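Contributing new records

If you add data, match the layout below exactly. Sequence lines come first and carry their own label; structure lines follow with theirs. Keep one chain per record. Anything else will be rejected by the validation script.
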Amino acid sequence: MITCKTKSKGFSLIEVLIALVILSISLLALAGLMVYTTKSNSWGGHMTEATTFAQDTLERLRVTPWTNLLPGGPYPDPVMGATSGISYTRTWTVAPNADDTLRTITVTVTWDDGIHHSISFVSAITQ
């Protein structure tokens, strides 16, 4: 009597299906992570643009002569983002101290990309 024992050297259909289910769940998790990463990257770009607009306005106001830097505000100045196409609104206020020897400038940039965002810079200049 001849007996032939052959050992299978492959995967069964059940093992392959289980591996495909695990792989599919992993890929869905990665797809969700990619969406989150893209949104975060987009928000970072908007924040960089807003910071640049605020810094630009603050630097322009720092070199303005004292007599032309009138207390008051807010003074609105809408601007369009060059890379994002988002509409930003930058406003600034100038507040003097009691004897008007120091003026505090507050520059605020707001934008809306589905969520309302705002960033403010504050600086003080003397006469």
